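It is worth pausing here to work through a concrete case rather than discussing structure prediction in the abstract. The textbook approach is simple: state the sequence, then state the predicted structure, then interpret. We follow exactly that order.
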Amino acid sequence: MTSEDLNRWIGCDNSCPAQAMYIVKLIEGELAFCGHHYAKNEKALDKDAYEVIELNKIEEVPQLETAEM
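Step two, the predicted structure:
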């Protein structure tokens, strides 16, 4: 999976028309889930997943304070 893949529209793998918000990486492959279906299956997925990627998450970059002269 590349950073370009993270920016494209991915549908939920659970026969749901919603956009995927999570990519769950398993030894057997990857699954994509909308928020609803990820929450519904989270406990079961935690047992087999080795990585969960949250899509479309905007992380704020901390700003350095500059000293006034």
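Step three, interpretation. The chain has a mean pLDDT of 83. The beta strands are 22-26, 29-33, 51-54.
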